[in-house]
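User: Could you check the structure of this?
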Amino acid sequence: MKTMQGVVQSAKTAQTAIVMVTRRWQHPLYKKYVKRTKNYACHVEAGLKIEEGDVVAIQECRPLSKTKKFKVLNKVSDKKVITKIVEEAKKSEEKIEKKTEKKEKTV
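Assistant: Sure, the predicted structure tokens are below.
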């Protein structure tokens, strides 16, 4: 069975979560890596506490409804951990932008 990891986009309904899965593939002609995302409606068991922003593992299963063909296996990491990583990435991007601005001003 197919298993994937993704970020919870919506957990508003009782037993369903919308999970966004990101994958990268290489273009056959240009050899550039392209990022693609897809949203999956996943079934959430009663014992799992899932919030938006959590990273979860999902697995393919029999069709549970018209759109739900995956179920959530477990929570990989919390939203708090992900927000720290995103903040650090934004800070590093800002530093790089400042360096490039300084170089452009000197040229």
